[in-house]
Amino acid sequence: MGRTKLPVLILPVVYAITGVLQLQHYFSWKSTFFMLCVIAMGVVFQPDRSRPGSTRCGWIALLFLLLLWQIPVLTIRYATIITALFFVTEYFFGRLQTLTFITAALIAPAIDFMVNVFTFPIRLWLTGVAGNILAGINPAVTTAGNMILLGSNEFSVDPACMGLQMMLTSLLCGVMLIALYQRRYQKVLPFTGVLVVLLAIAELNITANLFRIILLVQFALPPEAMAHDAMGIATLLIYVILPLLPGVKWMLQRYGKAKPVHTGVHPPPLYGWLLHGVLAAGIIGGHFFIPGKRAASGEMDQQVKHLPGYSYAVLDDHVIKQTRANALLYVKGIPGFYFTDHQPMICWKGSGFGFYKIAEVTIADTKVYTAELQKENTTLYTAWWYESRTRHSNSQLEWRWDALCSGNNYYLVNITVEKKSLLEPEIQTLLHTRLIQ
I need a surface site. Which of 42, 119, 149, 267 has the fewest CB within 10 A? Predict the structure, then answer.
């Protein structure tokens, strides 16, 4: 081990420094969730010291590094650095368990984005189910998009206040619980068993949120009340964490396999040193030579039609802004299917507006999302969808799949007006206009 001490000490430090420099705007370093991620990684990080010398993570890291030159996004930068760190660990200390890789994936902010965006239809569905249940108890209860109305009280179901944002927290708790039980019983749960547990956690989370919505409305607990947050924590503990305790234990005792005993430790392959050198050079050099995330090209800007009667301006990040009296149109180019988009629920909230009465409606045979924006005494009405030269869609999966298969450039179209009566006519006009040329 004497000759390996130097790279063992240097490589992780170099990768960690490079990671902080490259990912400083990727993670919320001071958030409670990030601290939970660090704790979870500490719990599951347990190399099998009887099996050092593996180069599997090295080849995966090299694949990510090559991919990074073509798709220079922060998620792939993170994947490159974390797998390079895992390569150092497995090469010198021993194999890592599957839970370590799952935890590393859950930590990535891209997963949080996917959970918030792709569960949006689930949030609307939960609102409808909870509203129907409550209406059976109290006929005065009605629903409007993501709002449940009870007398003068309005309850909004959105990412800011609903427990579905606890999905990743629940999954990390489940992964830690599996790791602790594996350590206690000296058994390993197969990957299929781990997958079953994670799927069960997702289902329990949805059930917990259904009960949470019902209880919040039934007891009229507004978001600003401490009891509102306490109810969220209570439903998470009762409907997710408590069932996991006996459930994971039973799964491990029923399907867990005894940890294999490995004898005859083999020396690490010599070509692993070369792989370490290539990765270190690529990761360090990439910090200086690989460009940041590619924004939409000027060609994409030119594909957006300048509507008659609208002013036209190109903003930062190649966002097209067109305005006229009582109407504001943003058309935001998305360079590829793998990029995050400029979600209105994020952008408008950044401007201090609250999102209310979010609903999916069909206009001109196209499904779009509509919502009310409220800020102090101002109320605006907005709608958004995704559009290419040939298609309209409000489905994340649909437009991303089409962009992957066809190579079409997609744009987020967001129209906002001052009067509700103007919204539908504006939507119809835009849907019938070849906005993307």
Answer: 267
Pick the closest to residue 51 from 6, 16, 21, 96 (CA basis): 96
Give the separation between CA 387 and CA 413, rounded to whole angstroms. Answer: 7
Rounded to two decimals, the pTM is 0.75
Query: CA torsion sign, 73 to 79 to 85 to 88?
Result: negative
Token pair of 233 as six digits: 């924590």
Q: Which residue has the tokens 């194999």?
A: 95
Alpha carbon separation from 190 to 85, 244, 403 (Å, rounded): 24, 17, 35
374, amino acid identity? Q
The per-residue DSSP string of 22-87 comes to HSTTTS-TTSHHHHHHHHHHHHH---BTTS----HHHHHHHHHHHHHHHS--HHHHHHHHHHHHHH
Cα–Cα distances in angstroms (integers) from residue 432 to residues 68, 396, 417, 425, 429, in the given order? 39, 21, 18, 11, 5
**Confidence band (pLDDT; 50, 70, 90) for 162?**
very low
Burial of 390 (0-12, 13-18, 19+ CB in 10 A): exposed
d(CA 275, CA 81): 14
Burial class for 1, CB neighbours closer than 10 Å (0-12, 13-18, 19+): exposed
- With tokens 């008659």, the residue in question is 308
User: What is the share, in percent, of the chain residues with pLDDT greater than 90?
Assistant: 31
Whose CA is closest to 169, among 350, 33, 370, 300? 33
Query: Does residue 416 register a pLDDT over 70?
Result: yes
Residue 12 CB neighbours (<10 A): 14
As a whole number of angstroms, the distance between CA 37 and CA 35 comes to 5
Cβ pair 183, 44 in contact under 8 A:
no
CB–CB of 146/216 below 8 Å? no
Cβ atoms of residues 4 and 53 within 8 Å: no
Beta strands (DSSP E) in 335-394 are 354-363, 366-375, 378-387, 392-393
- 437 Cβ partners below 8 Å, 6+ apart? 303, 304, 305, 389
* pLDDT (0 to 100) of residue 161: 45
d(CA 295, CA 316): 10
Q: How confident is the model at residue 301 (pLDDT cuts 50, 70, 90)?
A: low
